[in-house]
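Input protein
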Amino acid sequence: MVRGTIGRYLARPWFDALALRLGVNYLFPLSRILHTAIACEGDSRALVDRLQLRQGLPDSCDDALTEVSIRHYVAKSAFERWKVVMFGDNLSIAGRIFSELRRQETAQRLLESALLFRDLRRQVAPISWDLPTPRDFQEKYADFLQEPEKAFAPPTTMPRMMMSHSIHGVYGREYWLRYPSSLGGGENWVRCYEPLTGLEPDAPTFIFLQGLGVEQDCFQDREDPICALTEAGFRVLRVQQPEHAFRKTAGWFAGERTLARGPIGLVEFFRQWISDLSVLIDWVRWQRGGPVILGGVSMGALTAQLLSTVAWNWPDRMKPDALLLIATSGDVMGVLKKSCLTGALGVPNQLHELGWREEDYIRCLPFVQPSGHSVVPPHKVIMMLGQSDDLTPYKGGLALADRWRVPPENRFLRKGKGHFSLLIDLIRDPIVLRRLVDVAQAD
């Protein structure tokens, strides 16, 4: 559908404005209500207290709470059974496929139940804010202010990696990895795809990082040009973000804790994910000898580019060989202060009221923004940017491409595309992925 006529009309600037409005005014408050309701376990009084509702619950919410409790129990049971089947019981492939499909179906039904609270949406703020003061930031990172790169040091001891049984899917052989996160946040989860015919000894591995709020593993599988790279002989590893999908803190929706804590939430997100990725890259090196490509979209791209600039003192085996950055920006503080999303949520004004000034933002820069050059050589960095993107502003992405001397053939600059329409364009015409294949095969 996206590849056809509908996709051609969606991949235009009007879609970006609509997507932003739907996210801030509908998706965020409804998701917040849902995850608070799950944490309240059907207790309507607790829900009123946690959401600080002034008008109480509409009558329609009584049935909604009951339905959510049922769907949550079913989804949790399916997930626990899935873990046993995939990481324990040696069932047939058919049994594993059924368990995987059941997990996806029940997780999707649970998230869709947010629509049951539509009568409550207008009473609820999109985010449960917990923004810090400049002093909070200084106290939390006092040990790293002089040497920020130490905040991103990889673990000295690699955790034990658990590999699941495999199934046969649309894009080839599928399996999962799970391992402890060295900075907290429970377990890290990675969904893996390989060609059914097997991997060549020098096959490239593409580690893909999704954007903030995206929980692809909690929905039934759909067309995915990233996973389709298995057709070119790639191993594709799709990594779950901190505070998303299986890693969410109870009572918070995907990405909410990162947004709610402002600069501290952003730094903690980067620190945790970069630490997790260093472990994953190290594991990949021990498995195969081919190039390791790190790439992502939006927040995933911001994480990938930051990792590539803090990894200079890491062991060589933990450094990526190539980068794919989609909808990124080199001005990460600008994303926090001036993007259309943070502006719509009122983040800059709230931080200003808490005492944040220019010198305080400058103190944050080394923890969130790529400084210096990447460990990846310029000819192996690929960028795809929307020239109308005002969420991760285009000028910041172009400035980063210039600073890193990314060659013209690796720059895919889409005229008239905003943040969300750019992603539609990626599905409709994955030319940037064909360039990725060429760069990987050049090794």
The mean pLDDT is 93. The chain has two domains: 23-123, 134-441.
